[in-house]
Amino acid sequence: MKRLVIAFIVLIVAAADAGSPAWAEPPEGAAAGPLEKAVALWRQAYALHLMGAYEDAVDLYERSIEIQPTAEAHTFLGWSFSHIGRTEAAIAECKKAIPLDPDFGNPYNDIGVYLIDLGRLDEAIPWLEKAMGAKRYCCYEFPHYNLGRILLAKERLEDAERAFERALDYAPGYTPAMIGLEYIRRQGVPL
Fold first, then answer.
1. pTM of the predicted structure, to 2 decimals
2. DSSP structure string for 84-114
3. Which of the residues 36, 48, 103, 178 could staple to 57 if both were Cys, CB 3.0 to 4.6 A apart?
4. Is the residue at 29 inside a domain?
5. pLDDT of residue 97 exceeding 50
6. Phi then psi dihedrals of residue 127, to 5 deg
7. Is the pLDDT at 18 greater than 60, yes or no?
8. Domain boundary among 131, 153, 170
9. Hey, is 136 helix, strand or coil?
10. What value does the mean pLDDT take over residues 68-79?
């Protein structure tokens, strides 16, 4: 039954096709090419990921990449891998994404997060800095917050505070950064 519900939701997402990026839209009257087909699979995989169906999402991300590799598909495949305990594979997918679109910020931040998760804090810093400087990124607060986590763990409280404040410059209501600042101000336990 679960697979039937998931399949139904994926069909709804695919049919809705709302908010699709301009680069993924075929010209009016043109048949969908490889990129459009790959993006459609990517969208379905993304919906599955959001529902927690990570293995199914992995399958669709991989099919998307087979048709047309994109930085998004590799990055989000890595994200699904990270949710099923395949952190090194997640890092590898993000590294494949970067040459496809060096301006896309997500893989840099994601590599940083995965390295934090592995306890490799010093290795994570340059990746987060690259995310901060990326030309195309939706969420600049993320790498600043993640750098703040590292600095907090290293007990560099003033630097961590600046990183959290910078995250809030990008997203004033970003709760994780607000919590980080509150921990520092109360001299609390590191995140």
1. 0.83
2. TT-HHHHHHHHHHHHHH-TTB-HHHHHHHHH
3. 48
4. no
5. yes
6. -70, -40
7. no
8. 131
9. strand
10. 97
Q: Which amino acid is at 165?
A: E
| Residues 98 and 52 occupy one common structural domain | yes
Q: How far apart are CA 131 and CA 88, in angstroms?
A: 19
191 touches 180 (CB < 8 A): yes
**Same domain for 170 and 113:** no
What does the pLDDT read at residue 187?
Answer: 79
The amino acid that residue 9 corresponds to is I
136: β partners: 104
In Å, how far are 24, 25, 31, 32 from 28, measured between CA atoms? 12, 8, 9, 10
Looking at the DSSP assignment, which residues form a beta bridge with residue 22? none
Domain count, the chain: 2
Q: Between helices 106-117 and 87-100, what is the axis angle to 10°?
A: 160
Q: d(Cα 46, Cα 52) in Å, to the nearest integer? A: 10
Domain assignment present for residue 153? The answer is: yes
